[in-house]
Amino acid sequence: MSKLLTAFFLIIIENVKAFLHISEGGDKDMAKNTGKGYRRGAVDNRSQAYNPATEQWVKRNAETGQFMDVKQSGEPFKGVRKED
Q1: In the prediction, which pLDDT does 24 show?
Q2: 78 is in which domain, residue-wise?
Q3: For residue 25, is it within any domain?
Q4: Residue 54, C-beta contacts closer than 8 angstroms, at least 6 positions apart
Q5: Of the residues 39, 41, 47, 84, which has the maximum number of CB atoms within 10 A of its CB?
Q6: Predicted confidence (pLDDT) per residue in 12-52, tens digit
């Protein structure tokens, strides 16, 4: 009975870890796509700003300030924080 109970609790712990996206080291993982049409968490070290001259969103590296990409569709990048 105790082996069954131990196995049951191990399964519960693994499911909770997967739900909270906690790695073995206890740290939170990076942002991840859930496969259900949304992302859990935000992308680290990235930001985006709207360029009214081109009517497009520009993604940049938050540490260096270097521009990385421009979104051609006019919609903002998913999972990247917006600058004020």
Answers
A1: 52
A2: 41-84
A3: no
A4: 70
A5: 47
A6: 888 777 776 655 554 455 677 788 888 777 788 899 999 99
Instruction: Give the bridge partners for 81, in sequence order.
Output: 47
For 56, the 3-state DSSP assignment is: strand
Is the distance from CB of 34 to CB of 20 less than 8 angstroms?
no
Angstrom distance (rounded) from CA 45 to CA 84? 16
pLDDT of 84 > 70? The answer is yes
Q: CA 60, CA 39: separation in Å to the nearest integer?
A: 19
Q: Is residue 31 part of a domain?
A: no
Residue type, position 75, single letter: E
In the numeric block, which tokens belong to residue 33?
């796509």
Instruction: Give 83's DSSP letter.
Output: P
Beta bridge partners of 50: 57
CA dist 56 and 71 (Å) reads: 6
